[in-house]
Write a structure and sequence with these properties.
heterodimer, A: alpha+beta, 60s Ribosomal Protein L30, Chain: A, 2 domains, 4 strands, disordered N terminus, B: 434 residues, mainly beta, six-stranded mixed beta sheet
Chain lengths: 178, 434
């Protein structure tokens, strides 16, 4: 699980290394602030460099790259046959909603998934409802619905291939993709 | 030979003509049968070119068909007391002593044109009478189908319902290729032979659905990074995008006359059932509910649609008339019933039915509302009726991953269709071939 989480984090860090240029262009003030107040040493301390913006060929980073931030949580897990957002993920959804409000030109994709049990088409609908439930929460908090794209893969793209509850738990999810 | 049409549409997505053969044939394993199977002997066919090996052993194909059905006690070839090739050559006493009730005899002749002429007789041993006799001309590439057609005739004459041996099954396979999942839409004969690839994609494929004439398949593809519905011509490989609205585009089902496609779309907010007219493109919305509505299936008369909805909490089966009116709930037994599919005569429905923590294939009697569970595994799904209503093919979780299985409508006959590589799922049993 930890390894997996790290993988997800480093993958998203890599992704954001690529997209951070874009962020810089769109929100010059914020990036400028970071570069003046966050010298290289503190970046080391925060561990941001460990997730390497090096590969992306840029030294700037945004709040999205900060592993301490709720924004680094990009997967919301769900109960069986449920699209209700669990209390523990409320702050995650809020953080992403806030980011969208502060960065109105940023768009995200919410990718809904289901575990393999039961019928595939029903699971496709369930995956979409999970993504919709996250979207609804974000728009209630003030994010614009035009910033949020939905896609459901149902049970077709499991995070884990196993056929037990431990695997199913990790497959009932919404992934937040910037 | 069919003309090969191959388009490369996207990276990692191939439309393949019906001549592209899959690498691993499905293997059928029989796990049960009826208590009193009918004794029958299939005598090797006479062959006009005795100097050469015949291009096909028709008797073996027929023997395997009948054995697989679970309804026949087929005599092993080495136990045959004699090998007659004509009615007059049958020594009825020899067969009666062995308790044999029916035998099939036949001949295959190579014609001057290089084609084949196949004749056969099905004979009742006790009454010493011919039950059926036919002559079928065939090209070399149709010989296997001729064997299945003979099996169909035997089945119909002796069991009383048409056989479904000369039919095809569509399904999805998934295997790892260089760390990526390769999805493939395939069709095979009902005995697992002749598997052919229709489409390959790195993105998910699901929900294959046959047109009533067996010439087209509708399916869902994620090749555009979102679900979209396509209809593909089985023979030419030519395909057309039918639905690519924002949100979900899924669960296609052809109307019994082939002119319309029922589907699930979420373009208007959440998943609802729609019917698209394939001739003029018009779209009719069927359901209006904030719950999940999906998996439409047409009643055989084309007047109603059954579908899965969680409007009452968990998924249950509903039925709605295409002429309007409120959907009616059909399933009340259990907390999870989904993926309804009408039997060809419209009196039953097969579905996915949860029993405690297991998902099994069930049959809903539309008269009584009672659900009978037909299977015993943990993760069974995607049931599909054979066109004669006698068997249901479905996907189950095997030791090596997803595989296909079949069960008779009465639950007594079980078959497993093994495949060597990867997952096989979402079987759709095709119509009778014409």
């Amino acid at each position: 699980m930890l390894v997996r989480l790290l993988c997800v984090l480093s993958i998203s860090a890599l992704l954001f290394a690529c997209s951070s240029d874009q962020v810089k262009e769109e929100t010059p003030v914020e990036v400028e602030d970071l570069s003046t107040t966050a010298p290289d040493e503190s970046a080391d301390e925060s561990g941001v460099q460990a997730y390497g913006t090096d590969d992306g060929g840029t030294s700037s980073f945004s709040e999205l790259d900060d592993p301490q931030s709720q924004l680094s949580v990009r997967i919301i897990y769900f109960e069986y046959d449920s699209s209700e957002i669990r209390a523990e993920y409320r702050s995650v959804v809020e953080a992403h909603a806030r980011y969208l409000i502060e960065n109105p030109s940023t768009t995200i994709t919410l990718e809904g998934h289901a575990d393999e049990r039961g019928s595939r088409e029903y699971n496709l609908a369930l995956g979409e409802r999970r993504a919709q439930s996250v979207k609804q929460q974000m728009t209630v908090l003030g994010a614009s619905s035009s910033q949020i794209r939905l896609v459901s893969y149902g049970e077709e793209r499991p995070a884990v291939d196993g056929h037990d509850e431990a695997s199913w738990q990790q497959n009932r999810r919404v992934e937040i993709l910037y | 030979m069919l003309k090969i049409v191959k388009h490369i549409l996207f990276i990692g997505l191939f439309v393949i003509s019906a001549t592209s053969y899959a690498d691993a044939p499905l293997k059928v394993i029989i796990e049960g049968g009826v208590d009193n199977p009918l004794p029958i002997a299939i005598v090797p066919f006479g062959w006009s070119q005795s100097a050469n090996v015949p291009p096909i052993d028709l008797a073996t194909v027929i023997r395997e068909d009948l054995t697989r059905s679970g309804r026949f006690d087929v005599m092993a070839e080495q136990d045959l007391p004699q090998r007659p090739q004509s009615f007059d050559g049958i020594n009825f006493n020899d067969w009666r002593k062995l308790g044999m009730e029916n035998i099939l005899i036949g001949n295959m002749v190579l014609t001057d044109q290089g084609d084949f002429d196949i004749s056969f007789r099905l004979v009742d041993i006790y009454r010493q009478k011919q039950i059926a006799g036919f002559r079928i001309p065939a090209k070399a590439d149709r010989l296997r189908r001729v064997a299945h057609q003979i099996s169909d005739i035997i089945f119909e004459k002796l069991i009383g319902i048409p056989g479904a041996f000369d039919t095809r099954v569509a399904y999805i396979t998934v295997k790892e290729v260089k760390g990526k999942k390769l999805h493939s839409l395939q069709i095979a004969d009902a005995d697992g032979y002749n598997a052919q690839i229709l489409l390959e994609s790195n993105e998910p494929l699901l929900s294959p659905s046959w047109s009533p004439d067996g010439r087209r398949l509708a399916y869902v593809s994620f090749e555009g990074k979102n679900s979209a519905i396509f209809v593909q011509d089985v023979l030419s490989g030519k395909r057309e995008k039918i639905a690519d609205y924002p949100g979900i585009n899924s669960a296609p089902a052809f109307s019994p006359d082939g002119s319309r496609l029922a589907m699930t779309l979420s373009k208007d907010g959440n998943t609802e059932i729609y019917v698209k007219n394939l001739r003029n493109g018009s779209l009719q919305r069927i359901t209006r509910h904030r719950g999940i509505d999906t998996e439409p299936d047409w009643s055989p008369d084309g007047q109603k649609l059954a579908f899965t909805s969680d409007r009452s909490g968990g998924p249950q089966i509903y039925e709605v008339s295409l002429n309007g009116g409120q959907p009616k709930r059909l399933s009340f037994d259990g907390k999870y019933n989904a993926r309804p599919s009408y039997s060809p005569d419209g009196t039953y429905m097969t579905l996915v039915h949860r029993v405690e923590a297991s998902y099994r294939i069930g049959i809903l009697d539309l008269d009584s509302g009672y659900i009978t569970t037909l299977t015993e595994a943990r993760l069974d799904e995607s049931p599909s009726f054979a066109p004669n209503g006698g068997m249901i093919i479905y996907a189950t979780m095997g030791i090596k991953g997803a595989q296909l299985a079949a069960v008779s409508t009465d639950g007594r006959i079980h078959q497993r269709l093994g495949l060597q590589v990867g997952d096989v799922r979402e079987p759709a049993w095709g119509p009778f071939l014409k």
